[in-house]
Amino acid sequence: MDCSHPVPGCESAMRGDGIPVIAMLSGTGEGKSTVTCDLSRDAALAQVSSQADADSNTSCSCVYHTSWFSPYDRSENVDIIDTPGFGDTRGDAQIEKNNDNIVNTLKSVGKVNALLWVLNANQPKQIGSGRTDAFRFVRAYIGKAMYKHLIFVYTRFGWRASKGREVETGEARKKFLKTLHTNTITNLLRDVESEFWPNGAIDPVVEKAMRDLPFFGLNIYTAKFADDGVGQMEFFDEDMPPEMYNKEDPDGSWGVFNDEKTYKPNGASMLRELKAQILKVAEVPPLNVAHLRPLTESCDKVADSTLDSDVTVVGQHLLDCVNGQLYKTLIEVVKPHFQKIKGDIFAAFAIRQAAEVNDVDGQELAAEAHNVLALSQHAMDTASNFTSMSAYSTCKNLRPHDQTPKSTASALSTCLQGIQEGKNPTEVVAMQERFTDPKTVSADRAEELLAAIEQLKPEERAMILEGPFKINLRDLVYRRLTIIIIFEGSMTDIKLPFDLKTSSTRTEMSQKILGTETVRRLIPPKAKEVLTLEDSNGIEIGSDMDVQTLWKGEANVLAKIELELTPEMKLLDDSMREFLSKDVPDWNSRNELAQAFTKDGISQLSDLAFT
Description:
By secondary structure, the chain is an alpha/beta fold. It contains 26 helices and 17 strands. The strands form five sheets. Strands 1-3-4-2-6-7-10 form a seven-stranded mixed beta sheet, with helices on both faces. Strand 8 and strand 9 form a beta hairpin.
């Protein structure tokens, strides 16, 4: 059927924020179109709804831009979505079309304030396919949010009922309506809700929430007024005796909407209470139906997930399980599934990431999912340490040699950027140890990784090499040695740094030592020096191969410098030593004499030995 809404006044979208939006849901023939007319007190809508109710063939949803029945000047707007009925008598194909139409209409609307589930009070024991399908729809697509937005409305409920010679009104009728509603809820709990709980044991909190849903009874309907000669649709209250109808009543509907009647409650007073309840519901955040989906089908997909599945998608499926109160599936299918695939941590990440992109109820649903699945504290802590499952997996599985240097550098950046502020995950500590262990990371590999890291953005490079979780690859590429200078058998205060690399040679070390200005000052011009290198154990370093042994042991090198003196230089040296020893008897050590030479510039005298 074409649902292009050719009927005047039938729209397909809302008017905007600030106007309450009501969606009518019910089985076929329950009277939801009539309630639409009652709430709007609109004769034109009455004409449309009368035809729809006459054959129960409403197949398309219709959005009415209308106003409340009261005040009578139509100064308060309301938008009402009238939908086709559940349990259509034309067969399964039509039922499927109707359901698709309802879902698509709600999605296009985007937000709804109140859901009115309309039930015919003259069929109190009818919990057939229409009613169960309507409730299953609410459960399947709305889930827990229904407790904030669902309102029951009973049509054809009389507020004046004959009991023998007496007429029952007031509190007696309210009591009867409550009994009627209680029986409805009891039947729904037994016939529908119990299916979604292990062993049919419904949570007491959920049962109370269902029993506490508001309910109202109406007996105002539309029909043709035979005496007007036109056959136009008019409103009637089946409880009003003929003498109560007043053509001059301000409501413009013969007093049907005037609640000042001789008996209370009445249809008009109930409408006012219903309006007040709808406006109260409209004060809470509206129901987001823009992404309406069948929560049951979504929940069932969790059982097909693997550790390679999209974590956020699986998380949304999990939250749909909780939002749809699908505890039988959660406990009997989902929980064992994650135990089987050892997906405790995966589930924790899935729930957390989905909650972050969910609506205002995301964190509440996440907490409930954690509880139902009995996730370990370790899993939840791990999920809170990282910004994503991807970052966690990268940090946990990253190895120095598994990928190309470029890919490894990129993965290091992903890992470190994914750590939540203030956290110190054990997975990252372990990763640091793997990348800084010289037993597993060769100097050549470290040099390749450093070169790849240098190609990253400056902030990424700084994070890896200098950040709070820095990877000290430089320590694997070279080793910082300390060269201690011993001159002419005496220890000096000179200590030189030297970065040992795999390519370092003895010649490079010698050039480093003898090319340093403080060392050159010790050696007289034109004097010939002899340099001997030893490790911390006194073993001579005489070749390039010996240099590489400095990667192990203490990082100290002894550089012994001896001078080869000419006969003249030796004579001058002996003479000056003898002279100084006489004038300064306490200067007996060669070290002190060498210091005196240096301090007093006497090394200049040594030059005479070469002239």
